[in-house]
């Protein structure tokens, strides 16, 4: 039973967060505020055996493919609990060990290898989800919580066997994905504890509904056209809702799979049905194309800075490298120095580090305002001892029409930093993007105050 712990267990008898006393207080305080008066009924049975129709609002947290061997792990506790409680709950502890044959996880050594384990998981999950689809109310979504690991992201996007197999089972059960939303379930300290390897960023809520029995069949080309047509607005809505960059990979699955799963089939060029894994890859590719198109809307200085950052980060390189990039964007390298985006190191050059940016910079007084500067200064001010949210909000207010572009750039810089493995830099942009809705709110209040002050001044 291989295990790896990245935290220390709390002393159950102590006074820390994980102690029995504190946990009891947390539960009690929740129950005190609970307004429900309808008695609950609890039954334990296999999800595959649900036979009622159109009766339930279903919210489920299914097994995570091969991430956790629940039954084996339970044995660690079961054998000791059995010694103490078998006389109290004889039915529950009638076995010597936890039953494992019917456990719905993809365990290769139990199912004849990797392929057999994947088939077992797919078939079993499809039966369970089909039963849930039948039992769920037609006018209510079926919500499925699914753990997502950063390590499940490849260059082609979220295409891991676990995710692809699970989503395929969802579709095969006659459901379509109406949305995917991240729920922040992990502390940021956990994200940093593994050297920034965000092992579990979020729990993902799949919002599913019953697919129309008369759903049509489309081609691969039709699917790609639909993605390009619908995803830009969906991505913008996700960002406006405050979803941070670290959760974008999961969140964009929602609108993409929404397109894919509302059809009965998407046919490949050879008339075979497109599998989910291929659909996920195409969704990611279209998303990347959308992001690249956004890059071309930035000012020339920002485009050069973005290209430099993607290759060298904040490292210094020969000036000739900058000249080549500047020529490609039709801008003089001298203009890049004048803007303050780059610094001239006499034969070498580099992006100006945030620590060296002028402290009193504002978009109002800068003669050459770039989106790059807007992002870097806001990130600097947000975490400065003499700054914070209010100061960063004032900068956003002064950006005017550049504010949406600055927000988009923060997401783009996070993606690049993550791909390069620059953990500290990625966390900077993730925090900035997540705080952006609050900064816009502060900016709006600052605009109202400024307008009020102007009106009062005119009265006098």
UniProtKB/TrEMBL annotation:
* Keywords on record: Methyltransferase, Transferase
Molecular functions per Gene Ontology: methyltransferase activity
Q: Which GO terms describe its biological process?
A: methylation
Give the protein's recorded name: Putative DNA methylase
Organism placement in taxonomy: Bacteria, Pseudomonadati, Pseudomonadota, Alphaproteobacteria, Hyphomicrobiales
């Amino acid at each position: 039973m291989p295990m790896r712990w990245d935290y220390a267990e709390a002393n159950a008898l102590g006074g820390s967060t994980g102690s029995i006393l504190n946990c009891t207080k947390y539960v009690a305080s929740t129950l005190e505020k609970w307004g429900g008066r309808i008695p609950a009924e609890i039954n334990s049975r296999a999800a595959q055996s649900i036979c009622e129709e159109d009766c339930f609002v279903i919210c489920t947290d299914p097994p995570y493919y091969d991430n956790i061997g629940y039954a084996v792990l339970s044995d660690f506790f079961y054998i000791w609990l059995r010694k103490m409680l078998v006389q109290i709950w004889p039915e529950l502890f009638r076995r010597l060990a936890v039953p494992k044959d019917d456990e719905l996880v993809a365990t290769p050594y139990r199912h004849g290898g990797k392929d057999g384990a994947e088939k077992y998981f797919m078939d079993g999950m499809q039966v369970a989800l089909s039963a849930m689809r039948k039992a769920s109310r037609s006018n209510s979504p079926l919500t499925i919580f699914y753990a997502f690991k950063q390590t499940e992201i490849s260059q082609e996007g979220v295409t891991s066997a676990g995710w692809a197999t699970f989503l395929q089972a969802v579709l095969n059960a006659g459901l379509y994905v109406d949305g995917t939303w991240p729920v922040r379930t992990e502390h940021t300290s956990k994200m940093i504890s593994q050297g920034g390897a965000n092992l579990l960023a979020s729990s993902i809520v799949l919002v599913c509904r019953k697919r129309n029995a008369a759903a049509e069949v489309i081609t691969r080309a039709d699917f790609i056209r639909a993605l390009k047509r619908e995803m830009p607005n969906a991505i913008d809505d996700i960002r406006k809702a405050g979803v941070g960059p670290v959760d974008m990979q999961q969140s964009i699955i929602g609108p993409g799979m929404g397109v894919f799963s509302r059809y009965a089939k998407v046919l490949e060029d050879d008339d075979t049905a497109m599998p989910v894994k291929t659909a996920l890859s195409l969704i990611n590719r279209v998303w990347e194309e959308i992001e690249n198109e956004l890059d071309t809307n930035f000012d020339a200085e920002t485009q050069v800075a973005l290209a430099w950052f993607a290759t060298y980060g904040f490292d210094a390189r020969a000036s000739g490298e900058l000249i080549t990039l500047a020529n490609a964007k039709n801008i003089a390298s001298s203009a890049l120095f004048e803007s303050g985006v780059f610094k001239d190191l006499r034969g070498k050059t580099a992006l100006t580090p945030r620590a060296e940016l002028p402290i009193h910079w504002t978009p109002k007084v800068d003669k050459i305002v770039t989106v790059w500067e807007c992002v870097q200064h806001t990130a600097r001010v947000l975490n400065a001892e003499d700054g914070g949210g209010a100061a960063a909000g004032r900068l956003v207010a002064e950006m005017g029409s550049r504010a949406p572009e600055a927000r988009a750039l923060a997401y783009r810089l996070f993606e690049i930093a993550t791909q390069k493995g620059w953990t500290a830099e990625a966390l900077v942009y993730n925090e900035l993007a997540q705080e952006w809705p609050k900064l816009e709110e502060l900016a709006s209040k600052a605009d109202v105050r400024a307008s009020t002050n102007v009106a009062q001044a005119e009265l006098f």
